[in-house]
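Thanks for the sequence, V.! I ran Methyltransferase domain right away. Repeating your input here for the record:
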Amino acid sequence: MTEHISSAHVPTGSVPATWYADFFTYLPNEFWRRAATEQWTAADVDFVESRLGLTAGSRILDVPCGSGRHSLALAARGHRVTGVDLSTEAIAHARAVAHARAVAAAAGGTVRFEHGDMRDLERHGVFDAAICMGNSFGYLDLAGTRAFVDAVARAVRPGGGLVVDFGVTAESILPGFTGEANTMVTGDITVVANEEYDAEASRLISRYRFSQGARQLEATAIHHVYTSGHLGDLLATAGFTDVRRHADPDGTPFTLGSGRLLITARRR
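Predicted structure:
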């Protein structure tokens, strides 16, 4: 059966700007839930705790939180976590896992998941830290990204920390970019991905075919590509300082060709 057909075969210019509103259904979410190992998540959470100097009971905003793997792991370490995401499937999954695990009860942490847009954070100075993991920073165009960064800045208290995880900086994807098809398999889910770079709009267009038995999904994702310097300027304009760049949770410095950018910053 076909679960959902998105904009996989329409011209690049016709891909809706709000592609992310319909993209994150069961097959994409389940694929990434399986692909992200416990070791990967633990390394990310170690990085967040150590680089931001978090103490037990810290109030953390995870936005967008996806299926909640970082939120759940942080809560299990004794933090008070709020996860926000626009995908109803991902939020439902995260809530179910939290309930099944009775997560964080022994450690004294808490976690709650809210359905909502990453730009609509009606909180002011209540979080000790915010995290934006897994490439979602590039989902929005420049105006939307500014709105998101401003919303996070309002939500984090003065002196609070921020971690942004982004694998689609210009320094990461453009050196050696070929656009060749890539096939990924996890369990009984297969994904074929084709990528093209829209130089006029500085966007990476990713067209996916997900397959799980008779279930198939074709969908297109857009990542707006920013330079490392541009990201730093966006954060500084919103009120963040002490911006530092890493290529890996072990603290490796970010350089040209690094496949991943982990930015840490402080709310001025």
